[in-house]
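Sequence in, structure out. Go.
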Amino acid sequence: MQNKDIYTVSRLNSEVRMVLEQQFQRIWLQGEVSNFVAAASGHWYFSLKDSGAQVKVAMFRQNNRMASIKPQNGQQVLIKARISVYEPRGEYQLLAELLEDAGSGALQLQFEQVKARLLAEGLLASERKRPLPAMIQRLGVVTSPTGAAIRDILTVLKRRAPGMQVIIYPSLVQGSSAVAQLCQALSLAYQRNEVDAIIIGRGGGSLEDLWCFNDEQLARLIAKSPVPIVSAVGHEIDVTISDFVADIRAATPSAAAELVSSDQLHLLERVQRLQRALLQAQRQQLQRFAPKVAQLTQRLQARHPSRQLQQQQQRLDELGSQLLRRLQQRLQQFKQQQASLSRQLSALSPAKKLQQHQQQLNQQQRLLHRAMQQQLQQHQQRWQLLLARLDTVSPLATLARGYSISFDEQNKVLTDSNQLKKGQSVRTKLAQGAFVAEVTAIER
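Output:
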């Protein structure tokens, strides 16, 4: 037994919570709300479920007051949350930080999921990006033959590269049939193998108008292109999956035409090579330091007093709910006893004893009411005692009683007058706010 490391239940739950919080980053999760409870403290508690499973969620007041909606049972929502453990019961739960209606976030979630899958397969890696040919004689353009994009492209090429041949592969660029036609046009260009590079895109529009360029099937087909592809979708602020998977992303169709007709292409290629090398070096540096920074950050967050305070707040809500349920149970028991006495009185109701029994009944009712009041008072006193005990361990309560904490210029806590010198600035934190003072006299 001396060589065994024996855990307590509290220690086990605490270490499990730290492992979960350090192992998992914040995640996005979609599901249906059930068992929603808004506690008197302002915190929200509910379950998030789908057809096969469910998980408990807590959303504390400082986060839920920034939510755009108050969830209802049966509502589909999208949340951003941290994974944690509620230590008193050893229950795995999510701590929600952001919450929104699933309808408004569905397209963005779908966009991120497609991007994540392509990134995991290496289709977005900079290493597979190809530069444009030094001399483009034939250029393919996959777009609408009647849209503004093709007019802008032809105008730029006429000015910058009048000798370049342009082959248009016509396609719809928005609507339910756009993805199929875009894929068909690209496949035709691949099959005919007659161009040195391809521009695919369209002019600006809403997110729904540009959505066909976020299709996973189209993205994978772009990645298989035998020649370099320039993605030119929408305006400069619009970003699509096609932009990520293409060899080059142009801010607009006109910018794409300028890229393929550049008079200083060799300089652009050199800049791109240097940029890729710089980005690669930056990524390597970030990848080398990111795990250590993330580990230290997670350890700091796991031991932050706010985490303990959240656990205590959740425990307080739970105790309040238990107390209310017990009071309701006792009240129901007293009601049942009263009903039983009433039935007995009715069974023994001869006329000559009616007045006597009526007096006894009134007396029993007074005793019952007095007992109920005593029980309620006892439970209220016990609840107030629990609240007072919890408040005594709060660092904020210590400040509220008139104490304060002073710090020097390096933000170190001052505990000895020998740490001070005249003229030094000292910052003092109070229960509400803080102030900065200058030392004019020192008492050793």
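Check: The chain has a mean pLDDT of 85. The chain is about 50% helix and 20% strand.
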